[in-house]
Amino acid sequence: MKPYLRRAGIIGAFSLLIYIMIYMTVSWQTGESFPEGPTDQEFVRRKLDRIEQTLNRLAKLIDASGQKTSINELFPNAAKEKEKISVPKLYPKSILFATWGDGLSEEEQKNAEALFQIYGYNVFLSDQLPLDRKLPDMRDSRCLMRNYPRDLPNISVILIYINEALSIIKRAIRSIITHTPKHLLKEIILVDDCSTYNDLGKTLEDYIGQIHKERPGLIKKVRHVKQMGLSQSRISGYEHATADVVAILDAHIEATEGWAEPLLARIKADRTVVVSPVFDKVYFDDLHVERYNPSSHGFDWALWCMYESFSPAWLKMKDDSQPGKSPSVMGIFAADRSFLGEIGGLDGGMTVYGGENVELGIRVWLCGGSVEVVPCSRIAHIERAHKPYALDLNPAMRRNALRVADIWLDDYKNNVLIAWNLPLKNHGIDIGDVSKRKKLRETLKCKPFKWYLENVYPSLETWDNLLGYGTLQNALLRSYCVDQGDVPGSIPILYECHFQQPQHCYYNTNSEIIIGGLKSHKHNGNRCLVDPGSGSIPTLQECQLAELNQLNMHWDFKQGQAIRNKATNRCLEITQGENFYYELIIQRCSGQSWRIEHLITRF
Ligand SMILES: *[C@@H]1O[C@H](CO)[C@@H](O)[C@H](O)[C@H]1NC(C)=O
Ligand SMILES: [Mn+2]
Question: Is residue 191 within 8 Å of 158, Cβ to Cβ?
Fold first, then answer.
């Protein structure tokens, strides 16, 4: 082996090791995530992607380098790359440029960054790509062998948006026209939630005019005169639709070949099935598409949606082209228009954003239908780096979640209150008028939520052994809270109260104290407070493991009293350390007392 190769090999192996270490850390932290969620970790991941690419290149070089002798032959682009690097990166901290944008002039960088800040995806690049760009076929090969009847129900495709980039909307329209059989596509309805940017006015009209020359009247435009939010936009679209089936999509999507037929065929076979395509991920920066494995659309008790694996029965079929049952929909779906109307359409009491998809999923199941993900239907969907709606979506999301809980979750609505760390009584948040929706539930004779838990979503944990939840504070130091400490890491600490998830603690009838949030799903682990038995440092251990290993994880605790370990008889207390900061320790009980934020009284 030539010396430089050996060196490259060693460097490669070493970087790979570092990469794996970082990657494991990152993926561990991102256990539960929302498809368009906050993106600090995404940023790290993109950096890692780049390291990986470099490593792959390195590996290829090592493979193919038998004859090569000089550095110029090995790196034919070295000179060119140097030139590129000499253009300064104006926005080294912008996530847009983490892996994209080499070789752009300063002017172009400014342009791209400004557009990115507005839209949350790479409009600069989108404007240059052809409207009818061809995407890789992400379907399972078995999908290509399926035959669908010609007389499928026809479809209204609804695209909702606010301040979406013109080229993105045009590409969505073009992709739908190209990839939907002409006799099935009745109309495309654009719902503009009061966009304020100019190019969505006249320029979009011009484009629609152009389309109408080939397909008269195909596109309808609905415009809100004031911003009403995503839920209301979906409703407007639905109300204007006239075809047998409605498909409600975002406008930052591209339909792909054969996307419609598998959905329409399922609905033709059973009009009570609400179906979702798989949305493959379009990266917000370079707009390339990554295949997503088909998975079901679940949610946690805060009613944030998340991907989950299909049922064991589906997995056992070993056929990725088969539709799979799903507890919920993630926002993009198709349904028989009249069936959707019969079960109450979309809930008009939802505001801004969030929760409406979970509401629909639960309602469909409880009121006589079902939800499926259809893997042979694929929509490429841009996962934005940030959304154009309100900066902080939490208040809207929480309000909608409470509304859904109140109407549909029966006694299990307490889980939603706990997930949002609210008191079980008098949370004081206005959830709008729910009387009509409750009446609807009665009229339709929808099933109780318990049925849904048992039959549709058994992996949801019911949290029925809790005695208290919220922050945990010592009487000696009220402004500090028990906190899960550094993650990864397993040492709980005392930290100034900020009342967010790292400080959410739970005490249950098993005498466990769980710190740092409570998982909504049975397959996920919580972390339990453990007295290691010696020394003074408390630890957090995965509860099931702690139980298996018979660690000291059971505590006596009553509101306003000591937290005492049942096995060691030692207490969780605080003490002033050498640096005068208070620390969380375990020691012989000295009579300190604790309060947990919310108590659950049981009868
Ligand atoms: C759509 O299908 C319905 C019946 O399923 C039919 O009455 C209607 O004419 C169709 N519309 C178009 C435009 O093909
Ligand atoms: Mn979207």
Answer: yes
Vertex 583 angle, CA 580 and 587, to 5°: 120
Ligand 1 centroid from CA 372, angstroms: 25
Phi, psi angles (nearest 5°) of residue 380: -85, 130
Predicted confidence band of residue 119 (pLDDT cuts 50, 70, 90): very high
| Single pTM value for the model | 0.83
Nearest CA to ligand 1 atom 2: 154
Residue 275 one-letter amino acid: V
Nearest-angstrom CA–CA distance, 15 and 335: 49
- Tokens read off for 130: 């052809």
Starting from the CA of residue 336, give the closest ligand: 1
Residue 154 CA, closest ligand 1 atom number: 1
**Domain covering 466-599 assigned CATH 2.80.10.50 in the classification:** yes
Which residues have any ligand 1 atom within 6 Å of their CB?
153-154, 186, 243-244
DSSP state of 520: S
At the topology level, CATH places domain 141-382 in: Spore Coat Polysaccharide Biosynthesis Protein SpsA; Chain A (3.90.550)
Please list the residue range(s) of the chain that carry CATH number 2.80.10.50: 466-599
What is the C-alpha to C-alpha distance for residues 45 and 484, in angstroms, rounded to an integer? 24
Rounded Cα gap, residues 374 and 281, in angstroms: 16
Calculate how far, in angstroms, residue 155's C-alpha sits from the geometric centre of ligand 1. Answer: 9
Q: Give the residue range(s) of CATH 3.90.550.10 domains in the chain.
A: 141-382
Q: How far, in Å, from the CA of 36 to the mean position of ligand 2? A: 7
Mean pLDDT for 162-170 is: 94
Distance of CA 143 to the CA centre of its chain: 27
pLDDT digit string, tens, across residues 558-582: 999 999 999 999 999 999 988 888 9
Q: Would you list the DSSP string of 355-420? A: SHHHHHHHHHHHTT-EEEEEEEEEEEEEE-SS-SS-S--HHHHHHHHHHHHHHH-GGGHHHHHHHT
